[in-house]
């Protein structure tokens, strides 16, 4: 019996973005499949965040295409890419420090201009959903606390809960464990696994190799703006090209 791989979720073809003379993303052609926890790893400066920014419309690529579930989304603005089903978090966590946890949840899915108008107010249905998600990530007891007073790990959980407010099919996380204490790293890992069991596709940039190796189904390794190796964690860990990119051996 042949087993077919899951359908393609997110694909890029020749994706390229330079900053001055630096080719941050350099002709990256990658396929991430539906229903998997995909990891994107690589040394500092290898273009992972720039790749995320090109995919999610924060940055317009110089060349190449981004396709999501068979639909071209290259160069679309971030809110339209979000509407297509892709949610994301940021390497440097983005929450509004002077808003409460609950207000942050309610503004998470609002366009910037509406955010200024209505602030953190929400309909009863939205508020209900926000509270359920805060319970899910384990920070519901902090609902009325200003985000600035949360630990960095709690802010990351808040950001993840905010991403879930948009009901994304695919969730892109840029270093979810970065700067987070070990107890909360465990909780973030469990959440990713549970959400994946419920059908969400993940694309996770992460330097914490224990997390990457234990969590992901498929690992893509970036070096100098493009993939140099990919496969299941066990194969990638033993790949000489990966050791060379990381360790220079
Ligand atoms: N806005 C920018 N302007 C100029 N250069 C940039 C910009 N963003 C990224 N770069 C450069 O592009 C390259 C790739 O950076 P990027 O942040 O995408 O790497 P990364 O893989 O996410 O690294 P890290 O693991 O440290 O987060 C680096 O050389 C970086 O200095
Ligand atoms: Mg980065």
Description:
It is a single chain. The protein is α/β, with parallel strands linked by helices and 249 residues long. The chain has a domain at 8-88 and 171-184 and 200-247: Rossmann fold, CATH 3.40.50. The chain is 37% helix and 25% strand. The protein is built from ten helices and ten strands. Strands 6-7-8-3-9-10 form a six-stranded mixed sheet, sandwiched between helices. Strands 2-1-4-5 form a four-stranded antiparallel sheet, covered by helices on one side. α3 (101-107) packs parallel to α6. It is globular and about 50 Å long. Bound molecules: adenosine-5'-triphosphate and magnesium ion. Keywords: ATP-binding, Nucleotide-binding, Transport. GO terms for molecular function: ATP binding. Residues 10-249 form the ABC transporter domain. This is ABC transporter ATP-binding protein. InterPro entries: ABC_AA/LPS_Transport, ABC_transporter-like_ATP-bd, ABC_transporter-like_CS, BCA_ABC_TP_C, P-loop_NTPase.
Features:
single chain; 249 residues; alpha/beta; Rossmann fold; six-stranded mixed sheet; four-stranded antiparallel sheet; 10 helices; 25% strand; binds adenosine-5'-triphosphate; binds magnesium ion
């Amino acid at each position: 019996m042949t087993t077919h791989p899951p359908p393609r979720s997110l694909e890029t073809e020749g994706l390229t973005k330079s900053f001055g003379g630096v080719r941050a993303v350099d002709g990256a052609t990658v396929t991430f499949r539906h229903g998997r926890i995909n990891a994107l790893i690589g040394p500092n400066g290898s273009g992972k965040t720039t790749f995320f920014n090109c995919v999610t419309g924060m940055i317009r690529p110089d060349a190449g295409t981004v396709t999501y579930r068979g639909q071209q989304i290259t160069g679309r603005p971030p809110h339209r890419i979000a509407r297509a089903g892709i949610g994301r978090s940021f390497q440097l966590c983005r929450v509004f420090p002077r808003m409460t946890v609950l207000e942050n949840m309610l503004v998470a899915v609002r366009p910037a201009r509406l955010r200024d108008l209505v602030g953190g107010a929400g309909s009863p249905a939205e508020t209900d959903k926000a509270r359920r998600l805060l319970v899910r990530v384990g920070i519901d007891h902090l609902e009325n606390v200003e985000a600035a007073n949360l630990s960095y790990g709690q802010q990351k959980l808040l950001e993840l809960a905010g991403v879930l407010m948009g009901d994304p099919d695919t969730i892109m996380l840029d270093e979810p464990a970065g700067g987070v204490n070990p107890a909360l790293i465990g909780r973030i890992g469990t959440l990713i696994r549970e959400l994946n069991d419920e059908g969400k596709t993940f694309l996770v940039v992460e330097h914490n190799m224990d997390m990457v190796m234990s969590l992901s189904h498929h690992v893509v390794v970036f070096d100098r703006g493009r993939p140099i190796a990919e496969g299941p964690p066990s194969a990638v860990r033993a790949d000489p090209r990966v050791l060379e990119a990381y360790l220079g051996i």
